Amino acid sequence: MLALKTRLWRAEYKWRALRSCAVQSPRIFVIGTCQGGAVARVMRHLLPEGRIDFVSVYEAMRRFPRLNDLMAHIDGYDAAFSSGS
Predict the structure, then answer these.
(1) Is-contact 51 58, C-beta < 8 A?
(2) Distance between CA 58 and CA 49 in Å, rounded?
(3) Structural element, H or E, at residue 52
(4) I need a surface site. Which of 13, 27, 31, 53 has the fewest CB within 10 A?
């Protein structure tokens, strides 16, 4: 239980730091499997003024045939998160 509280505290601290950044509406890119979609939805609730974009791994393979294409797209975001195994 203590480990869960510690993780939640860290997450809350990170979100506060992200919210207080100079950019009023953070731009966050999430890439992953179905769990990544859920993470993106939660982020949208936590940061309603932010721009949260989710791309599934399968969609990313079609949209970004090369890794350089994906990296160029991610450069337009303040943070990028990935989920998956």
Answers:
(1) no
(2) 27
(3) strand 51-56
(4) 13
Supply 12's token pair.
């809350």
DSSP readout, 47-77?
A: -TTSEEEEEEHHHHHHH-SSHHHHHHHHTTS
Per the prediction, the chain carries an average pLDDT of: 81
Alpha-carbon distance 34 to 56, whole Å? 7
**Which residue carries 């989710």 as its tokens?**
54
pTM of whole model > 0.85?
A: no
Which residue type does 79 have? A
Domain spans in the chain, listed from the N-terminal domain onward: 24-82
Q: Is residue 75 classed exposed, middle or buried when 0-12, 13-18 and 19+ CB atoms within 10 A define those classes?
A: exposed
